[in-house]
Specification:
Protein name: Aspartate:alanine antiporter
Domain RCK C-terminal: 290-372
Number of helices: 19
Pfam families: Asp-Al_Ex, TrkA_C
Strand order of the largest sheet: 9-8-10-7-11
Membrane topology: Multi-pass membrane protein
Number of strands: 13
Main location: membrane
Shape: elongated
Oligomer: single chain
Number of domains: 2
């Protein structure tokens, strides 16, 4: 009876491969949630493991299905990364761009050396690069490049299967290695206490070290005070002493709200409502007076909105240097998918999104129009125009059809590279026209996650039967190569960043995690630091590597093919 049931399940999955894809997604994301210390494989790697196991049932997934998933992913990758990729191509960020150059050059050199010595096929070489560099997108661009080789269909399927198998083995090794060395071993080599160094950097940038438990409180708050020490002072003079981090938003006298003006003199017994950064309000309270217990009569709502920074003159300026109107407070800076700390000395980049609390309505005006010299306010909610994805995929497919021959070796961006490039340009353009309908963040995240996981599931299912053969062929060689290819470029970056660039340890380690596009490594570093300062290095290198590394897929396939005997 059990054999009949297993046979029925096998036949069903073989007949309906789409069912097998989503079964691999379900099991894979469950596997990816398992955490061992700082190590968590994540949904994509978990999906690949599940797909390889299910693939032992000889399930064939149509190439077109895999391509659809991949094109959705690579478009979303380019579209979401475009604004930060182009914003970081400037002289100010060229320092950290060196880390991405190190990653690409060293990893390519190591993979090609291993290919020449061990006579690796192009599929295994590309999979090793993707896994050791922990960049899943390379799997897609490499398999697409292999499909264009002048080889029999059976050989193309074998090489594509080797990409996936080599990736799965070296990814796990590369992931574990980069997490451990960046968060534990490198701090020992630098002879630093990461938490102490991160606290020093936090304070130097204008942050405050708060007592345990305060982290759950909002960063921007309102507090009311009885006017005592500030008696006789004008609103303008008190505001100057409070600095930009606090704003006077209401004054109540004898139970009535008084119209605010710069020359309004405060009287003893007035109630005053301040809005600002929590730590700054606590420090400045003595300038005003005793805190009011009952604030119900002074309660007011803060307007909240997002502004994208578009004016080049404010790029690479500190947050405190921005000409923000009175009553506005930046509570966070979103750069790509990361939220940076909104500290006075945090440097903003073009296309950063400033998350703003606005108390200026108390002054009878709104600050949003006054921020037009910085950038544009983002609409609260814009529906996604998925036609943009269709245009990008069509143009990218056409662009990827062109081939350039260098030294007798044909190179092509392929469908993946072409769609990535078009997505980058469209994402950059939309950041400039942020008030127009584009593809919003939530839709991009869904396309990216579902596209990559669906593609990985498809290729994993098709590659299942030959996975064991490749593992038996190379044994421990691939895992050891995965570790070496993860450690060597990271170590070179550590040496250059510490000795030459003189970077702070949290920023340096964050940049190394970013050059390898390793979010798990970033999380481990941030846990060791106790704050988000590693993001200051991570976001720049991640934005560049996340675009450049996928383009290495076609390149490594072309170079590895040229090294094949005969």
């Amino acid at each position: 009876m059990s054999g009949t049931f297993i046979g029925f399940i096998t036949q069903t999955l073989q007949t309906v491969p789409g069912l097998a894809i989503f079964l691999a997604l379900t099991l894979g994301y469950a596997i990816g949630q398992i955490r061992l210390g700082p190590i968590q494989l994540g949904g994509v790697c978990g999906t690949l493991i599940a797909a390889l196991l299910i693939g032992q049932l000889n399930i064939s997934v149509d190439t077109d299905i895999k391509n659809i998933f991949f094109m959705l992913f690579i478009f979303a990758l380019g579209y979401s990364g475009g604004p930060q990729f182009f914003a970081n191509l400037n002289a100010k960020n060229i320092q950290l761009g060196i880390f991405c150059l190190i990653e690409v050059v060293v990893v390519l050199a190591l993979v090609l050396t291993a290919t020449a010595i061990m006579h690796l096929d192009p599929g295994t070489a590309a999979g090793m690069l993707a896994g050791a560099a922990t960049e899943s997108a390379v799997v897609g661009t490499a398999t697409d490049a292999i499909s264009r080789l002048d080889l029999p269909a059976s050989e193309i399927l074998r090489l594509q299967g080797n990409v996936v198998t080599a990736y799965s083995i070296t990814y796990i090794c590369g992931l574990i290695t980069i997490v451990i060395i960046t968060s534990q071993i490198f701090p020992l080599l630098l002879r630093v206490n990461l938490q102490v160094e991160a606290e020093k950097l936090w304070i130097a940038m204008g942050g405050r070290i708060e007592s345990e438990g305060n982290s759950a409180l909002p960063s921007v708050v309102g507090r009311a005070y009885w006017v005592d020490a500030a008696t006789g002072m004008t609103i303008a003079s008190l505001q100057q002493r409070l600095t930009q981090q606090c704003s006077i938003v209401q004054v109540q006298r004898h139970g009535r709200i008084v119209t605010l003006s710069p020359n309004l003199k405060l009287r003893r017994g007035d109630k005053i409502l301040l809005v600002g950064e929590r730590g700054s309000l606590i420090e400045k309270a003595a300038l005003v007076g005793r805190e009011v217990d009952d604030t119900s009569s002074l309660a007011m709502a803060l307007a909240t909105y997002n502004v994208v920074l578009l004016e080049p003159e404010w790029a690479n300026q500190t947050l405190q240097a921005l000409p923000l109107p009175a009553g506005t407070h930046v509570v966070a800076i979103r750069r790509g998918e990361a939220l940076l700390p909104a500290l006075p000395a945090t440097r903003v980049q073009l296309n950063d999104v400033l998350q703003i609390y606005d108390a200026s309505s108390a002054h009878g005006r709104a600050s949003a129009p006054l921020l037009s010299h910085i950038g544009k306010r983002l609409p609260d909610k814009l529906s996604s125009n998925l036609g943009i994805a269709g245009v990008a995929i069509a143009l990218g497919t056409w662009l990827g059809s062109f081939t350039l021959t260098v030294g007798g070796i044909p190179f092509s961006a392929g469908t993946g590279g072409g769609v990535l490039i078009v997505g980058l340009v469209l994402g950059w353009y939309h950041a400039k026209r942020a008030d127009r309908h584009g593809v919003n963040t939530d839709a991009l995240l869904l396309l990216k996650d579902l596209g990559l996981a669906g593609f990985i599931a498809g290729v994993g299912l098709s590659s299942g039967p030959q996975a064991l053969a490749l593992i038996m062929q190379y044994g421990l060689t691939l895992p050891l190569l995965g570790i070496a290819i993860a450690v060597i470029p990271a170590s070179i970056s550590l040496l250059i960043g510490h000795r030459w660039l003189k970077l702070n340890a949290p920023v340096l380690l964050g940049a190394i995690a970013g050059q390898q596009c390793s979010t798990p490594a970033l999380s481990a570093i941030q846990n060791a630091c106790g704050n988000t300062t590693p993001l200051l290095g991570y976001t720049i290198t991640y934005a560049i590597s996340n675009v450049v590394l996928p383009l290495m897929g076609p390149l490594i396939v072309g170079l590895a093919s040229s090294l094949q005997p005969g």
